[in-house]
Write a structure and sequence with these properties.
Helix content: 40-55%
Order of helices and strands: HEEHEEHH
Shape: elongated
Largest sheet: 2 strands, antiparallel
Distance between the termini: 20 Å
Strand order of the largest sheet: 1-2
Structural class: mainly alpha
Number of helices: 4
Radius of gyration: 20 Å
Number of strands: 4
């Protein structure tokens, strides 16, 4: 892959304006990228499970099918899915997707009693092509 930088057509743009345009573009692209991952994570966490059946926590007669080990967590209450949030640093160079729910990471990596149900890294990997496209289009659009 080759990147050509030709600034000859930008002779009228002041350097500070050019820098601001690039900074704005970085911020927009990172925001788009983390939102792609978030949407993919939500989709993964919306799937039915293929494992054992359990009672939905806090209910008497509502059941759900849990996920099998190695598969993304199945929906029981939807709390994990609703808790997914994104954050982009002020300079746009760091983007984060995650949850404040402790059990989100327990499911992702597993515990002594729970085999991993990866979802966040799967969401990132499934989104990688879109992320590359977001960051590889023309910088000054």
């Amino acid at each position: 892959m080759e990147i050509n930088l030709d600034f000859t057509s930008l002779w009228w743009v002041r350097p500070e304006e050019l820098i601001q345009q690039i900074d704005d573009s970085i911020q927009k692209r990172m925001t788009a990228a983390v939102n792609v991952v978030k949407l993919e994570a939500i989709q993964l966490l919306s799937q039915q499970g293929t494992g054992r059946q359990y009672r939905v926590p806090g209910t008497k007669d509502t059941w759900y099918t849990a996920s099998s080990p190695g598969m993304p967590p199945a929906v029981a209450t939807g709390d994990l899915k609703r808790s997914i949030d994104v954050d982009v640093s002020d300079d746009g160079f760091i983007g984060e997707v995650g949850t404040s729910k402790d059990y989100g990471m327990m499911l992702q990596f597993g515990t002594r009693n729970i085999l991993p149900r990866p979802w966040l890294d799967v969401a990132f990997n499934n989104s990688l092509y879109q992320i590359v496209n977001i960051f590889s289009t023309a910088w000054l659009d």
